[in-house]
Amino acid sequence: MSRGFSSSHRLSLLAAFALAGFGLVGGQLLRLQVFNRAVRLAEINRTRDAVVVVPARRGDILDARGDTLATSRTKVALAIDPWALDDLLATEKPGPRQEQLRRAELEKRATLALLLGMSAAELDLLYAPVSRDRQPGEKVDARNLTANGRVKIRFVKFNDGVEESFYARLTDGNNYPSSGKNNSTSTPAAGLVGERYSVRTYPHGQLAAHVVGYINRDEHPVTGMEQFADFYLRGADGWRESDKDGRGRELAQFRTREAPAADGWSVMLSLDAMVQNIVEQELAGLGKKFEPASATIIVSDPRTGFILALGNYPTFNLNEYNQVPRAALASMKNIAATDSYEPGSVFKIVAASGALEEGLVTPASIFDCSIEKIDYAGRVRSLPREDHTFDHPLSVAEIISHSSNRGAAQLAMRLGDQRFYDYARAFGFGQRTGFPGGPEVNGDLKPPNKWDGLTITRMPMGQSVAVTVLQMHQAMGVIASGGELLRPQVVRQIRDAAGAVIYRFERTPVHRVVSARTAQTMAQLLMGVASSEGTAPEAAIPGFEVAGKTGTAQKFQDGKIWEHHHVASFVGFFPASRPQVAISVIVDDADAHAPGGVAYGAKVAAPAFRRIAEQLIPYLDIKPVTALSGVSLSALAGGRP
Amino acid sequence: MPTLVRSRSPFRLRTRAFIHPLLLAGLTLTFTGATGLGVVWARQQITATAVRTQGDERQLAQTERSLAELNTVLTAEQTTPMLERRNAEWQLGLVPPREPQLVRVAAADERRFAALRDAAFLADFRPATPVASSAPALHLAVNLPRR
Fold it and tell me: Which of A97, A361, A554, B131 has the fewest CB atoms within 10 Å, counting from its CB?
């Protein structure tokens, strides 16, 4: 080492430079880390910090056998970034390589058009560069600005959503000719942009539309189980704190805190897709044949109150809920719970059950149903007209099987105003059933202090009272269940994302209405309706005991009775001595195409009941029950057994 | 180290050489460098692992999405209207059974199957010829099936 080099002057100079350099660095550090710390930190946080939301998957809605009625999946909205080709070409210097790249991209674009089923010209239109004015104060990245200062539009949407598998095909480089830039690997056409979004899908379409309900595009539940069970279905989104790079991509190595998403739970309904399908096919058949204003069919297990099927006509497709025309919006209502009607003769079960339960009558008690007036509570009341003429006094069993209006009125009079009203309340009328899955009305059951002089003669035959189909079905369930009023239920289980049962819904009795003995007697009496002597032999099924009641009520609307418009109904269950299925068929205003121009319950609803029952017998393995234990119907009617 | 300081042994100089400043600096630099490189290597491994995990997550999410789509398609294919359409298209002529076609078996399945098995087993038996007309007929086994 020479002396000159090690002169203290030069060394000092070098040290001074080094020190000055260190000083500059230190000063800059001081400026950045101390004086401008807050500003810089905010900027860094803004540009680098990323909180990534991990969306939770909404739970499925399943039927009783695990068939999926509603599920979630993703779709991909397609768009074109018209500036993508320019960006790609900018990575190469102008020259033959750039030209080769351009040609390769144009070839890929032709392939993309082929995959999309579009013409090349149509796709070229989407690729035409577009821009917009820059808003005052708008911060725009330099690469998103055109030469004349406008903002490049990088998302030209042209498809609302394609399936994942199709999108995978569009983005698979193997489906495209090899790139000019790198011959070893193929890449998809530049500029194709996919935006994923979650969609709710209903694989069965319109099946059980009014029970399942739907969620709208904003993922807000609107009706049905989607709304009722939203708490279980929706789950909880997770999140992840991390950093992102200049292009907004997450830098996984900088993840700090993370809360995993909790997927929604699945809701298993008591509905059976097969039974529901039988019901909806029957409704479609009724709609085609009678063109009614509306119709409802409910099938349930009367032992538990669980509903196996609930269908309304008209209905709608859950996957196309937003395409229902304004004029047909009523088809989206669950009219089984939201609309009330005068039940007609089906309501006679209330007076008969009450009188039997109180021991005021026996099935063999005789009533003169030919009289037109009767003295009741110190006043003479006129009795309603009969639809049939009877040449002899009727027993209670015949009052039911022949559906005598005057007989029902006299049964109610035996009970008295208050007791009859109490029984009607106990059967569930005038109050909501508690059916989960949408709005429900109370119906209309006025207390005795609001009755006029004729109400005690008219209400027992189902006039001056308004009920929902669900209420009527629930009331018939009282007799089928052995005297208990059961809450109609549609949710069986709640299951977590792994399929484990979290909560199980059980049979829920509300209260006892009549004794088991009375219920059994009523079931026997109702068997007479579906016999050759009854009003609805059309409901009979050979080898099976069918119990039920017809109803044909004139429509009461806008304060007046509509003479030629009826609500036809048949509500029943079978096998009568060991009920397994209760079925309600209510058809509103089917007169125009009904035989004879009047839609009788026996002609319109009872055959539908039988058709459904016949299909359910093999499916639900319902075994025939030959005869009720004990006394025969003729014995109940006062004859010899 | 009192023994080394007090003694005049020839090892004293060697002991000093062992802690020579250059050697110390070299060791320190080596250690610092190794530590620095180790930290860099560890960070690189963390990054590589995180990126790999992210890729796996992405692939898992894609698989789940594909699975959801497939499940939806399968469910739609198994709906009753679709099955009925296929039944018509492929002319299978499948119809649900009607009550008259059903034969209901009242006996318990266990007893029924036991009776069927016994019937098959006893088919190999035949009654022996009575020795005398007054003797009771004996059911003797011939050609007993081997078990």
Answer: B131
What b/e sequence results for A611-629 when a residue is b if at least 16 CB atoms lie within 10 Å of its CB, and e otherwise?
bbbbbbbeebebeebeebe
Å between A197 CA and nearest CA of chain B: 11
CA B103 centroid distance within chain: 42
| Chain A residues whose beta carbon lies within 8 Å of the beta carbon of residue B39 | none
* Strands A379-382 and A373-376, sheet pairing: antiparallel
Banded pLDDT at B8 (limits 50, 70, 90)? low
Q: How confident is the model at residue B99 (pLDDT cuts 50, 70, 90)?
A: confident
Contact between A250 and B54 using a beta-carbon 8 Å cutoff? yes
Return d(Cα A187, Cα A579) in angstroms, integer.
66
Alpha carbon distance A597, B64 (integer Å): 57
Contact between chains at B104 and A68 (C-beta distance less than 8 A)? no
Strands (E), A246-318: 250-251, 258-259, 266-269, 294-301, 306-313
Asked whether A506 and A306 are in contact (CB, 8 A), the reply is no
Residue A180: the pLDDT is 52
Question: b/e map of A134-160 (b: 16 or more CB within 10 Å)?
Answer: eeeeeeeeeeeeeeeeebbebebeebe
How far is residue A142 from each of residues A138, A139, A150, A377, B67, measured CA to CA in Å?
12, 9, 10, 93, 41
Q: Work out the percent of chain A whose per-residue pLDDT is above 90.
A: 64
Full 3-state SS string of A79-106: EECCCHHHHHHCCCCCCHHHHHHHHHHH
Cα-Cα-Cα-Cα dihedral sign, residues A350, A355, A361, A362: positive
Residues in A closer than 8 angstroms to B82, CB to CB, are none
B98 chain-A contacts, CB cut-off 8 A = 614, 618
Provide the shortest C-alpha distance from residue A228 to chain B (in Å): 23
- For position A399, what pLDDT does the model report? 94
Buried/exposed A589-605: b ≥16 CB within 10 Å, e otherwise: bbbeebeeebbbbbbbb
Average pLDDT over chain B, rounded to an integer: 78
Amino acid at B125: F
Q: Which of B47, B72, B102 to mutate to test the interface with A (most CBs of A within 10 A)?
A: B72
Distances (CA, A) of A488 to A299, A304, A509: 11, 8, 9
Tracing tokens 């209420």 back to the chain, one arrives at A471
Residues A605, A608, A614, A620, CA torsion sign: negative
A618/B99 touch (CB, cutoff 8 Å), yes or no: yes
Both structure tokens of A49:
């910090």
Distance between B29 CA and the closest CA of chain A, angstroms: 21
Closest Cβ–Cβ partner in B51, B68, B79 for A73: B68
Which amino acid is located at A11 in the chain? L
DSSP class of residue B143 equals S
- Give dist(CA A290, CA A310) in Å, integer: 20
Q: Which of A71, A73, A277 to mutate to test the interface with B (most CBs of B within 10 A)?
A: A73
Contact B51 A253 (CB under 8 A): yes
Instruction: List Cβ neighbours of A137 (8 Å cut-off, separation of 6 or more).
Output: none
ipTM summary value = 0.76
Query: How many CB atoms neighbour CB A124 within 10 A?
Result: 14
Segment A494-517 mean pLDDT: 94
Chain A hits for B78, CB-CB cut-off 8 Å, are 67
The Cα–Cα gap between A355 and A420 comes to 9
Report all structural domains of chain A as residue ranges with CATH numbers, in order of start.
Answer: 74-199 (no CATH), 273-636 (3.40.710.10)
Could you give the angle at the alpha carbon of A607 between the alpha carbons of A411 and A524, nearest 5°? 35
Domain limits, chain B: 2-94
* Residues of B in Cβ contact (< 8 Å) with A318: none
The minimum CA-CA distance between B76 and chain A, rounded to whole Å, is 5
Q: How many CB atoms lie within 10 A of CB A277?
A: 21
